[in-house]
Amino acid sequence: MKSQELKIVRVLPEDNHKLLEIGRQTFYDAFGPPLNTEENIHYYLSKKFTLEEITNEILNPESQFYFVLHKDELAGYLKLNSGKAQTEAVNGNSIEIERIYVIKSNQGKGIGKYMLDKIVAIATENAVDFIWLGVWDKNTRAIQFYEQNGFKIFNRHQFMLGTDKQIDLMMKRMLS
């Protein structure tokens, strides 16, 4: 896929319905059955992916959402957190990638790498020391992708998906 066919745009409050739709769909596609039970996925979506929750997240000044467009069609989205919006307290000047998702039909086309390059550019503009994220320890494909792009495991934390206690690997990429 040619990078000139891709562009990244900031999500605005009036985009909340579109963000909710892509957020729910990409999360379900990534982590739904058979990886997790239908009950746990629906419970999580009903708590974290509501219009009220998404709107509050968009309005948080320490969070930024971006849509990625391929030929002006929605191909994915990402969420960055800084300051107190980060889901974990980490030592140092950092930005967290809380969400980075590509629509299933667009996976394997280089969009994830494009998104990561844009995140590095945003983090560099903001003069942060590192970028970090949490990735499910069973998501070997994502772990390999992040390792290939300079991320290293630095910790672990628990993630509750419904009633299932899961482990996320915390990975970071130094920028300075």
TrEMBL record:
Keywords: Acyltransferase, Transferase
Coiled-coil residue windows: none
Domain N-acetyltransferase: 6-176
Identification of the protein by name: GNAT family N-acetyltransferase
